[in-house]
């Protein structure tokens, strides 16, 4: 009723603050105060009772004081005020002070949670751990599991309740395992926690499946496990930044509770260019490989990202200046031509890119060689700000000379464009061509034609939503193991099994 009244423009939130002050002045029973505080908390209008703060915190009923602490803490979010509440004698006031700042991710609030997590009072300690969990602190996982095995039954109950508060499916196996052996009080809490986690799991699953692309999975010399993972933006689906606690890592039968997650490469706009050879035959294996690679990369393109594609000739039949200064129209399709003119030579829509990819376009629209083609793409990429990458798909019959390769490097370096060279066959990797591509974080690879598309997609996947997950072995380093990596987030779920490659001999 209060929400409906506020939506109609009535100052109900202000009136609730006045009613609370009147109840305090009247000195009546605690029930109306607790009821009003509950409504004020639900409406998130605690700022209207700040003037009554002293009276609320001095109230003789500890239930009123603890409820007021929760509402006032959410309204003020004052770290010093919260820390002073941790000095109160009533553990309920302390616990509610900690709960009032759940979901706030600052260094100062983390100190509050760390202080609370060391409290001898079970409610205060687990509220601190839940606060750390919601900040994405992986250490909270092992500490909650340890609290669930505490000698005190009160601690064990609070820890089981806290697992339910996180909504984290990683706790389901543990809760299921203790259900039969727990005493009745613990078991009742376990039932509620299981129900809450399963509801959360349903919401994660409703958000959809995320396609997780494993870029690498290795065991390093010291035994450290390292997985590099990329999550495609997926066209319409936008997966926001993930917290470390959104990841669940299992190696063998062991739940990994000590791991680190590093987020990499998530620019607001990604600008990508492709300089590719003009190959007349659609049946040419390299032409098919490049087409497949472009389509695989297109699956990762977001609506805001910009693309540019230019084809260069693989023969010497063009006149020296022919094609060098042409706008990369690539097609006679009026939709494509108009789109490029409106977007300063960039391709923005997947439907338009899908028309351009098959190629090969007309001969007089191609750049004369790889140098001219890459130069044209670099010129267009320079029109946009942000992170910029250029794929150079070299044809073995039209490789640029060392001087031309160095000129490509110079132009790209001036614009801070990262180069990625692709070659189905050709010279060794210690050539000038390989060197210029590997400058400034770029890549260069020679692969069989049938692997080119996968390589392009893997490199492109590394530009966006990339995460590095590392953890140590439970015992001494041994043979390679399988690891299971799961993601449970509001943006969706993922589940993949990866084989960890042993260190190279």
Contiguous runs where pLDDT drops below 50 for at least 5 residues:
317-329
What's the CATH architecture name of the largest domain?
3-Layer(aba) Sandwich
Helix percent band: 40-55%
The CATH class of the largest domain is identified as Alpha Beta
- Supply the CATH superfamily name of the largest domain: von Willebrand factor, type A domain
- Structural class, by secondary structure, is alpha/beta
| CATH fold-level label of the largest domain | Rossmann fold
Question: Could you tell me how far the N terminus lies from the C terminus, measured between alpha carbons in angstroms?
Answer: 70 Å
Largest sheet: 5 strands, parallel
Number of domains: 4
Taking all Cα atoms into account, the compactness measure Rg is 30 Å
Portion in strands: 15-25%
* Strands, total number: 13
Brief descriptors of the model:
single chain; 20 helices; alpha/beta; 505 residues; four-stranded antiparallel β-sheet; 44% helix; Immunoglobulin-like; five-stranded parallel β-sheet; 4 domains
Describe the structure.
The chain has 505 residues and is an alpha/beta fold. Helix content is 44%, strand content 16%. It is built from 20 helices and 13 strands. Helix 5 packs parallel to helix 7. Residues 317-329 have low confidence and may be disordered.
How do you describe this structure in short?
By secondary structure, this protein is α/β, with parallel strands linked by helices. Helices cover 44% and strands 16% of the residues.
């Amino acid at each position: 009723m209060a929400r409906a009244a506020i939506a109609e423009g009535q100052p109900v939130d202000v009136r609730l603050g006045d009613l609370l002050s009147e109840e305090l002045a009247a000195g009546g029973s605690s029930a109306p105060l607790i009821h009003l505080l509950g409504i004020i908390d639900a409406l998130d209008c605690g700022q209207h009772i700040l003037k009554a703060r002293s009276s609320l915190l001095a109230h003789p009923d500890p239930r009123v004081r603890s409820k007021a602490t929760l509402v006032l803490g959410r309204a003020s979010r004052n770290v010093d005020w919260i820390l002073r509440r941790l000095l109160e004698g009533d553990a309920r006031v302390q616990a509610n002070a900690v709960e009032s700042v759940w979901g706030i991710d600052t260094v100062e609030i983390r100190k509050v949670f760390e202080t609370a997590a060391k409290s001898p009072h079970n409610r205060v300690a687990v509220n601190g751990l839940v606060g750390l969990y919601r900040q994405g602190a992986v250490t909270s996982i092992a500490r909650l599991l340890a609290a669930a095995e505490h000698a005190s039954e009160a601690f064990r109950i609070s820890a089981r309740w806290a697992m339910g508060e996180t909504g984290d499916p990683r706790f389901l196996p543990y809760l299921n395992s203790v259900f039969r052996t727990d005493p009745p009080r613990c078991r009742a809490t376990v039932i509620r926690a299981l129900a809450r986690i399963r509801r959360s799991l349903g919401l994660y699953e409703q958000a959809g499946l995320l396609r997780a692309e494993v870029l690498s999975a290795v065991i390093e010399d010291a035994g450290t496990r390292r997985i590099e993972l990329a999550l495609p933006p997926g066209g319409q689906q936008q997966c926001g930044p993930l917290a470390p606690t959104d990841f669940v890592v299992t190696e063998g039968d062991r739940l990994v509770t000590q791991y680190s997650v590093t987020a990499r490469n998530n620019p607001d706009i990604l600008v990508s260019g492709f300089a590719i050879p003009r190959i007349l035959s659609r049946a040419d294996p390299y032409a098919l490989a490049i087409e497949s690679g472009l389509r695989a990369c297109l699956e990762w393109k977001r609506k805001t990202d910009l693309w540019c594609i230019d084809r260069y000739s693989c023969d010497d039949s063009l006149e020296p200046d022919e094609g060098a200064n042409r706008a990369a129209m690539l097609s006679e399709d009026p939709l494509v031509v108009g789109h490029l003119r409106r977007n300063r030579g960039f391709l923005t829509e997947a439907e338009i890119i899908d028309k351009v990819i098959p190629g090969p376009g007309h001969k007089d629209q191609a750049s004369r060689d790889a140098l001219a083609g890459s130069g044209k793409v670099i010129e267009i990429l320079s029109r946009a700000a942000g992170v910029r990458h250029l794929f150079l798909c070299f044809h073995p019959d039209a490789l640029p000379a060392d001087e031309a390769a160095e000129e490509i490097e110079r132009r790209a370096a001036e614009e801070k464009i990262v180069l990625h060279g692709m070659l189905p066959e050709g010279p060794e990797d210690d050539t000038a061509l390989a060197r210029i591509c590997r400058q400034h974080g770029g890549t260069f690879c020679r692969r069989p034609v049938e692997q080119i598309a996968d390589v392009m997609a893997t490199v492109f996947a590394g530009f966006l939503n990339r995460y590095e997950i590392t953890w140590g072995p439970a015992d001494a380093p041994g043979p390679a193991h399988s690891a299971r990596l799961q993601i449970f987030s509001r943006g969706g779920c993922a589940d993949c099994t990866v084989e960890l490659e042993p260190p190279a001999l």
